[in-house]
Every structure is written in C-alpha cells, then in structure tokens.
Amino acid sequence: MSTPREPAPGKPVLSVLAAPDWWAERWPECRAELTRLLGPVDYESVPLAFDHTTYYIAEIGAPLSRRLLGFAHLLPLDGLVDLKLATNALERVEARADGSRRVNLDPGIVTMERLLLASGKNFTHRVYLGRGVWADLTLIYSKGRGWVDLPWTFPDYAQADMKGRLTELRALYKTAIEAGRARPEQGEFPCQRA
C-alpha cells in the first residue's frame, strides 16, 4: 500500500510572449507585478524570437518574442492553480480596451522529474486540477537523456535551446531544494502558500 505524502515544492516558471510595443510600454510594470505575486526572479532569459506558430499573431501582434522567467521561491505543486489564475488576471489587466490580449503569460512548474504547464483547456493528456485549470505534462526529465519530448509536447518546448534553459532552471531548483529554501513565509507572496 502506498502512503500519501506531500511532494517537494516546484520552481515556478513563466513564459512571457508579446510583440515589441508591449515589451517597450508595459514590461517593467508587468515584471514588477509578477515579482509582487511570486517573489524575486532568479532567472530571466534574453528576448527569444518566437516563430513556432502563428496562433498568437492575430491577437497579440508581430514579431513575437518570449522571455522565460524563473522565480526563487518554490511553490507547492497544487499551487499551479493559483499561479494560472493569477497570470490570467494579469493578462486581463494588460489587455487592450477591446479585450484582446497584448501578452500571453504561460505559467508552469519545474521539478527534478518534469515540466508541468498550466492550461485552461482540456485535452486527453491533461489532468484537471480544479477551478478550470488543467496540468499539462509537457516534458519529463531522464538522467540519461535529459528533457524528453512527449507526443503532445509543444514544438517550442521541444527545441534544444528551450531544453537548455529548462536545464538551467532545474539546476537552480536543485540548489534551492538542497539548501532547504523551499518556501517563503506564509502570506509573503499572494501566489505562494505555506
């Protein structure tokens, strides 16, 4: 018989996807709000060109670029729901007057074993977490092979460059777990829970 127990928390990560006008006008304020919600950023990629799909262009604009962020304070795995709801709310704040998005905020959690992304859309491989949020098992980590694609892995997350960045985030996560820096004080950041 298995005995239920709480898993180690995960490292919150966020993909921020937007067009040049948003980055120029809104990124500093949005980044400050993300820090208020999630705590200090300990990883931020340079802007990365995003040309893996045209899905977002009609709404957000072009050319698209992405930044990948990692946050220093770890999050209980069931906190993925709160993280998704908080980033959805921030997307609405950042929206144009007609309600169309200017930015796509894609939250997830990195652990030693996997990358989970949060989604508001059901699909065969997604597990419902509650409050309209599903967990998407995007990549798994193998000691022998590194990040392993799954049949449904998004093409941008299957790229070697992205996997290299996720490996850096995984190393930061491992250091935090080993140092015992699992969680901030209760209530310190709205998306964090003790």
Description:
Strands 1, 2, 3, 4, 5, 6, 7, 8 and 9 form a 9-stranded antiparallel sheet that branches. The chain has one domain (11-179). It has 194 residues and is an alpha+beta fold. It has helices spanning 20-38, 57-60, 80-94, 160-179, and strands spanning 11-18, 41-44, 48-49, 65-71, 103-110, 114-119, 127-130, 133-142, 146-149.
List the helices and strands and how they pair.
Blueprint: E1 11-18, H1 20-38, E2 41-44, E3 48-49, H2 57-60, E4 65-71, H3 80-94, E5 103-110, E6 114-119, E7 127-130, E8 133-142, E9 146-149, H4 160-179
Antiparallel strand pairs: 1-4, 1-5, 2-4, 3-4, 5-6, 6-8, 7-8, 8-9
Helix pairs in contact: 1-3
